[in-house]
Specification:
By secondary structure, the protein is of the alpha+beta class. The protein folds into two domains: about 35-170, Immunoglobulin-like; about 175-280, Immunoglobulin-like. The chain has four helices and 17 strands. Mean pLDDT is about 80; it is low at about 5-10, about 10-25, about 30, about 280-290, about 295-300 and about 315-333.
């Protein structure tokens, strides 16, 4: 009887453990595996069998360039993948993206429309198989020189993988940019320096930023130090960026000057100013007193600067007779 009771308890424990496993949420690793498409797309290895993170193609206008895409099915079932070319661009915050297939065609077609897979726009990849798909990129005869960002996009069952195509058309390369709309937003530790970068040239840029801050009253705490931005700015693109400034003054008028440079000789500078005051009525009162003090100091400086100079006319009156000097000796005279 005790043995039967022990077996029943052991069975109950096993049932509870199984129920707990079934009810437990999936681990992050399992969830990530479920989200993976089960296949990969990447540039096919060249003659040196080197791994390429993206396609790099270069040629003159009118050239037909060729390359190959590798599709690898890592699952035990067949995969049907659809292929297309797409234009690449910067999102508003500077990230790289590709135009969706449902987007309206741009007025001026980009390099994505120059990519063709011929009749292999839909490829069936057997289980545990690697398929290599050739494609061509035809550079139109009137294409301007410089970088033309694009991508090869593979889609299957709602999953999409984009492989970048870095295309450079032969001719003069121009690295140029502007920095615009510089402003200080927020206050205190939440203050940020906002600005816009625009690529005015024909090559992709890796910009570096340097910030200088000046204040009206005190010494402005150091803004973020010079650094290379984590952005690849594509030709003709505009991005809106911010830099945190947790050490911004609490009560002062500041002016920030941004200098942006990039390889190839690109350089631009712009600035913006703003009163930084604490929130609420006390802050605005303090700002008013600060402004009044600055105005008063400026007025006194101007008045002092306009005080008349006696000039040589005072010397023309001749030497003045010194006042008699009385020696203090304590003796009566």
């Amino acid at each position: 009887m005790p043995v039967l009771h022990t077996l029943r308890r052991a069975g109950a424990v096993l049932l509870l453990a199984a129920a707990a496993l079934l009810a437990a949420p999936a681990s992050p690793a399992a969830a990530a595996a479920a989200d993976e498409p089960g296949w990969t797309a990447e540039p096919a290895a060249g003659t040196a069998a080197a791994v390429r993170p993206y396609f790099y193609l270069a040629g003159a206008p009118g050239t037909v360039l060729e390359d190959r895409l590798a599709l690898v099915n890592t699952t035990d079932r067949e995969r049907t993948v659809t292929l297309r070319g797409a234009d690449a661009y910067n999102t508003a915050d500077g990230a790289l993206a590709v135009r969706p297939a449902t987007a309206a065609a741009p007025a001026t077609p980009g390099a994505g429309s120059w990519i063709s897979f011929g009749t292999a726009t839909t490829v069936t990849v057997p289980p545990r198989t690697r398929a290599v798909v050739p494609f061509t990129l035809t550079v139109p005869p009137a294409s301007p020189p410089g970088d033309h960002p694009a991508a090869v996009v593979a889609t299957e069952a709602g999953h999409e993988v984009a492989v970048r195509v870095h295309l450079r058309v032969g001719g003069p390369a121009l690295a140029a940019l502007t920095v615009e709309d510089v402003a200080v937003r927020g206050r205190g530790r939440s203050a940020v320096i906002a600005y816009t970068l625009v690529n005015r040239g024909n090559v992709a840029l890796a910009p570096a930023l340097r910030i200088r801050a000046d204040s009206l009253v005190g010494d402005a705490p150091a803004p973020p130090r010079a650094r290379t931005l984590p952005v690849e700015l594509l030709p003709g693109q505009r991005v809106e960026l911010t830099e945190p400034w947790p050490g911004a003054p609490a009560l002062d008028r500041v002016r920030v000057t941004l200098t942006v440079t990039a390889p190839g000789g690109a350089r631009a500078e712009a600035g913006g100013s703003r009163w930084l005051v604490p929130g609420g009525l006390p802050g605005w009162t303090g700002a008013g007193l600060l402004a009044l003090g600055a105005t008063t100091a400026a007025a006194l400086y101007l008045v002092r600067g306009r005080r008349p100079d006696p000039g040589p006319a005072a010397d023309a009156a001749g030497p003045t007779t010194p006042a008699p000097h009385h020696e203090l000796t304590g003796a009566a005279r």
